[in-house]
Design brief:
single chain; 62% helix; 0% strand
Amino acid sequence: MMGPAHSLSGAAAWLGVGAAAAATGHTMPWPVLAVGALICAGAALAPDLDHKSATISRAFGPISKGLCEIVDKLSYAVYKATRGPGDPRRNGGHRTLTHTWLWAVLVGGGCSAAAVTGGRWAVLAVLFVHLVLAVEGLLWRAARVSSDVLVWLLGATSAWILAGVLDQPGNGSDWLFPEPGQEYLWLGLPIVLGALVHDIGDALTVSGCPILWPIPLGRKRWYPIGPPKVMRFRAGSWVELKVLMPAFMVLGGVGGAAALNII
């Protein structure tokens, strides 16, 4: 899928988690719901860091472009080193390592660890990166006609304000992990969810997605998971633009309302 659809699906997924939490009597504080949805929207773009034309590769200028090249080469090296006898030969790393459940867990776990051990600046860094990506994905039309500096300033300002809101008693810095020293441990959860939602979205497209790596299926270790081919679509097709994106908006709205006990 394309960036806007990925971001919308990520936000809708976290709002759905909020609705499920409310249904079980564990309503999220509204800042956790809002910040988590934005983080998840941003994280849903992150697996495409292995693609030089993806939104994330452009989001942070030369830094993200350079990182994209490194991740692409790393992903390709891992693919070559671990591919099974049924896996085809490739000449690039797109939709390999960064499109797996293991990558999602490692990145989310790393961000949680950084937030807990690195203090406020680490929390702000995690928020900044994902809020910039959320702006690029959710407000993509405006972001493309704006300068990168304006988008970065918006991300930095939003990160500072939202961290201040979360730090207030009862607003969610210690949501789910209330023990002293575990503030913001939950930040990795929307990051993991966003990456997995991205992978599921890509699995619906023609090429499929090797979400289960390194678990082998038959003669393939990089098996492209997906529905029957007749049910798949091409990225950017009318199915994505006219069906899935409106559906994500509706589901996100319903999920948010349910999470806040409005319906």
